[in-house]
What we know:
Layout: H1 3-12, E1 18-19, H2 37-42, E2 48-52, H3 58-66, E3 71-76, H4 79-91, E4 97-101, E5 116-122, H5 140-147, E6 150-160, H6 163-175, E7 182-184, H7 202-209, E8 215-219, H8 232-236
Parallel strand pairs: 1-4, 2-3, 2-5, 3-4, 5-6
Antiparallel strand pairs: 6-8, 7-8
Amino acid sequence: xxxxxLRKFAENETFPNVIQPEFEEMFNVDYKLKGKWHSEFWKxxxxxxxxLGCGKGEYTVNMARFQPSRNYMGIDVKGARFWRGxxxxxQDNIPNVAFLRTRIEFISSFFSANEVDEVWITxxxxxxxxxxxxxxxxxxxxxxxxxxxxxPNAVIHLKTDSYxxxxxxxxxxxxxxxxxxxxxxxxxxxxxxDDVLSIKTHYEGLFxxxxxxxxxxxxxxxxxxxxxxxxxDEEEGK
Length: 238
């Protein structure tokens, strides 16, 4: 491991806005703050927004700048990446930001029913290899997992340069009888761009320079729904 990574890991340990549980604190057990984020961590009752796979934390930090009335938490397994976002939040005195180091597969260990009000999934790995669709962060496996801790009207946002992931997500929702509030395959050519949607990460900037279109999907999952998987690639191959 490089010295720079070690330095960032060490600095993360000193940041009050970084949570880095040990493996045994989250694997098949409830983390100590589950159900207590409002009372024991944030110490307020502001709605909680998660960014899953937050990378360097640019989106998390900038959403918090625009919306101080909410609490924001970036989640990623790579602490050396979100070190940048955590440090920026401290330097710029943005108190409504935190970062959690964990795999998204373990997310149910951290949040209780009705504890989270919004989820952003920004530029995740689209998992385009054959038979990898269940590993996509918008697969039925993950959406059913998020539903366990979302409030009834919680909104999920997907922003990605992957048209394939966008198309798959919309098809999966419709297969389960859910019509997205918004589903556009060229976000910046649409009329819906606001301060939050116009936030651009480093990688998004690179995608745009390459001429890629950014897609956006906004939806909610009815509490009574249990989503079933839909393999759009297999369906189209018939």
